[in-house]
Specification:
The protein is of the alpha+beta class. 39% of the residues lie in helices and 34% in strands. It has helices at 62-68, 72-105, and strands spanning 2-11, 16-28, 43-52, 58-60. A 4-stranded antiparallel β-sheet has the order 1-2-3-4.
């Protein structure tokens, strides 16, 4: 499970306000497909949402997770975050291999 931080506008009957939130999500990697089964694109699933108050206090918001579970903007943000995490991990792995080769050559 991974977490991404973003802000959302929450509209209530009394007022509208913007809130900082942490979104916990899972990525379903998708499937390239076979002769018999069609391909499936990668998708994100929101597991939990936490509202972050101005003082840094975190409040669980399961109602907000339910509201955002089909929000394409938040789901695509999760997919982009996962892609960036994967790219960073691959860069770190490549850097570690370069360093290991350099140390082995000395």
């Amino acid at each position: 499970m991974a977490t991404v931080r973003t802000s959302v506008e929450i509209c209530s009957g009394l007022s509208d306000y913007e809130a900082e939130i942490n979104v916990e999500y899972l990525i379903h990697p998708g499937f390239k497909g076979t002769y018999y089964q069609p391909p499936e694109e990668a998708s994100a699933e929101i597991i939990a949402v936490t509202i972050i108050a101005e003082d840094g206090t975190k409040y669980p918001a399961p109602w907000l997770a339910d509201m955002l579970c089909d929000d394409e903007e938040v789901l695509s943000l999760c997919l982009v975050d996962e892609a960036e995490r994967y790219e960073d991990a691959m860069e770190q792995r490549a850097e570690a291999k370069r360093e290991a080769r350099m140390l082995g050559d000395d």
